Amino acid sequence: MDCVAQREEFPALAQLFVDSFGGSEQFALSVLENFAGEGNVFTARQDGVCTALLCAVPVTLCGRKGAYYYGLTTRPEQRGTGVMTSLMDAARQELASRGAAFAVLIPANAPLFDFYAKRGFEKAFSKRALRRPVRNNLWAQAEFDTVTAKGLQQLRQKYAPNAVELNAAGYTAVLTDLYSLGVTSVSTDQGYGLFFKKGNEMHFVELFADSDRAATALLEAARQKSGCESALMELGEDQTLFLGEGAVHDYGMISFFGQPFDVRASYMRLMLDDE
Asked: Is 127-249 CATH 3.40.630.30?
């Protein structure tokens, strides 16, 4: 039977999450309790045992309510039997009854794009990856204060008003995870970025700025902080920074529960999918 998971089932579902994706039970419970929240965790049961998991994290997009599907997994012995397809159908019906207009997700690997396409999802939210050397500008300045959940929401509203938006609990979970992994934030009054230092390179998982010049200033300030001489940037396909540079890659997917709406200019990133 497919249905909303009960809170007493969370420990078993957290173990299923850990068995499937690794990590700690503490992180898995945080995903269920905080990132998704009670009432937004779906499970399939067989003989009283939870056999599959789907977290439907609350999000909004273009003024519409929806869900971000996260942590989808099935017990190994049940895979290939239609359990996840049935669970996705049940989640869709339940979410639509609550007023949700769509669901989004991020396939973990290339074959899963086809798997989800067969279950009503289509590609969206492509990202553009580009690499640039960063000039050693000793005069470059920026702020490196920790970004709060509220602060990130405000920055998104300014620079990416068509972004898939998490709620406050969702942003808190994402930022807690990013900072635990060593992310650094850099900002000026003309933009902001979040990056990891990997060897002698900065890996920007998000970068927004008013112009190429403003983005370059952020990169140069980040070089002074990190000592890295180059930057790998992941931008939304529709972002105009360094236009024409880099290669476009598939990233996310969307399924509309009713009338489709235009998401070609929409953006999705920082969805607890960075490792």
From this structure: yes
